[in-house]
Amino acid sequence: MSYLAVLQAHYRPAGDTGRADTTELAPAAAVYLPIVRKGESQKGQPPPKLLDAELSDEWIVHRARGVLNQDWLEQLDRTTKPGMRSAHFGFGINNNGSIRDANRSPVVTDAQMTALLEHCRTRLAELGGRIAAGDIAVSPYELNGQSPCDYCEFLSLCRFDPLSDNCRTLANYDKAEVLRRIT
After folding, report:
1. 156-172 pLDDT, tens per residue?
2. What is the mean pLDDT of the chain?
C-alpha cells in the first residue's frame, strides 16, 4: 500500500477540483525495484553504478514489483510481445494477447487501479483520523508467519514486544479476492 500512497499523492482523477493544477494524471504503475547483494542482506544504499558491468556479478537486480495498469503495459515494457514474459516486471502475455496467469499477475485494469487508489485514499484518511484522535498504538501485523518486526532496526526502542505482545494476523488473499473486497 505504500507505493499506492505515493502514487495517490500525485493522482488527480477526472473532475477533481481540489487542487490548483487540475491536469488529469493517469496512473501507469506503482512499483519498486528490489536490489540486494548476492548471498547477504543489504542495509543502506546500493552503489550508484549498480547496473555497470563490473557490479553485475555481485548484485542481483530483481523484476520490479507492485501494480501495473494494463492500459500502460506497452509503454512500460516495449520488449514484451505475445508469448513472452517481461524481463522487467512480473507479468507475461499469452500468444492470444491476454495476460498470463491473470489472477497472479500484478496487472490490473484501469478501473481496478482507480479502485485501489480510492481504497488507499480511504484507508489513509481513516488512519489520519485515528492518529488525530490520539490513537497511536503500535500494532504490527503478521502475514504468512512473518512480521516487519523481524527486520526492524528500532526493535530495542519499540513499545511493542514481539515475544509478549500479539501481532495482528492478516489474511492472505489472492488478487481476485482483494479486488472483490475493495470494489
Report:
1. 888 888 788 889 999 99
2. 81
Using the structure block, give the residue that is written with the C-alpha cell 492478516.
170
**In the chain, which residues have pLDDT < 70?**
1-25, 35-61
Give the model's pLDDT for residue 27. Answer: 84
Specify the amino acid at residue 66. G
- Write 89-92 long-range contacts (CB < 8 A, 24+): 89/31, 89/63, 89/64, 90/63, 90/64, 90/65
3 state SS of 113: helix
- Residue 63 makes CB contacts below 8 A (sequence gap 6+) with 86, 87, 88, 89, 90
Specify the pLDDT at position 156.
85
> Which grid cell sits at 74?
506497452
| Sign of torsion over alpha carbons 36, 40, 46, 51 | negative
Helical segments of the chain, H only:
2-10, 73-76, 110-132, 175-182
Task: Identify the CA nearest to 70 among candidates 115, 10, 28.
Answer: 28
67 neighbors 73 (Cβ within 8 angstroms) = no
What is the rounded distance in angstroms from the CA atom of residue 106 to the CA atom of residue 98? 13
Sign of the CA dihedral 138, 141, 146, 148?
Answer: negative
pLDDT of residue 87: 85
